[in-house]
Amino acid sequence: MSKFAIKIELQGLKIEVEGAREDAPRIAQQIGKQVGGLLQAPATLASGNGNLVLEGEVDDNGGGRKTRTPRKTGGTKTPADDVNLNHDPEKYSAPKQEWTQAQKAIWFLYIVGEQAQIRQLTSYSIAKNFNKYFKASGQINGGNVMKGLEKERLKTPAMVNADMRDGTAKYFLTTAGTTLGARLSTGEAVTD
């Protein structure tokens, strides 16, 4: 069995962050990803899992030199989930232009859950699919949807929550959010 030694030294590491309160969960997640990425390669080597071959090394299978491809870090958009929706406007109304982007997103999550049985979507997927099907109601932006839904997560009662297991926020409606979505789907005017 081969021996190895790993030494990591973070000298003078300083992290300084400024932002709005609603951005705090997302910022903390991104910092965690960055710091976790520093430790991933040594942990992989130490556990013996994976075949990480560093640049210029020869792999154990007798192959030639292989180089490690750089790992992507946070800040990239995930591909949007395409939603196949056959909207029934008589049953679920249509979004109003005067709604906020968060209200449009909550309404969209509600009708997608009811009609397509999709219960979780990223903010980017919500915006892309909403704009595809309801462009006339005013386009929405993935970043603004995320900000709006993050504000809704912090309210009591929260209208949405997010599944963060894969590192990307996939939003879903809470009981209060489902109630609001149902009210919006009747065309009821809802104020914040």
Please summarize what this structure is.
The protein is mainly α and 192 residues long. Helix content is 41%, strand content 4%.
Could you explain how this protein is built, in words?
This protein has a two-stranded antiparallel sheet with strand order 1-2. It has two domains: 22-69, no CATH class; 89-185, Winged helix-like DNA-binding domain superfamily/Winged helix DNA-binding domain (Arc Repressor Mutant, subunit A), CATH 1.10.10. The protein is elongated, with a radius of gyration of 22 Å. The longest helix is centred in the N-terminal third of the chain and has 24 residues, at 24-47. The protein is mainly alpha-helical and 192 residues long. Helix 3 crosses helix 4. It has helices at 24-47, 89-92, 101-116, 123-133, 142-154, 175-185; strands at 160-163, 170-173. Residues 52-59 have low confidence and may be disordered.
Could you name the ranges where pLDDT drops below 50 across 5 or more consecutive residues? 52-59
Principal-axes shape call: elongated
Pattern of helices and strands: HHHHHEEH
Helix and strand composition category: mainly alpha
- How far is the N terminus from the C terminus? 64 Å
- Proportion of residues in helical segments: 40-55%
The CATH topology of the largest domain corresponds to Arc Repressor Mutant, subunit A
Number of domains: 2
List the SSEs and their pairings:
Layout: H1 24-47, H2 89-92, H3 101-116, H4 123-133, H5 142-154, E1 160-163, E2 170-173, H6 175-185
Antiparallel strand pairs: 1-2
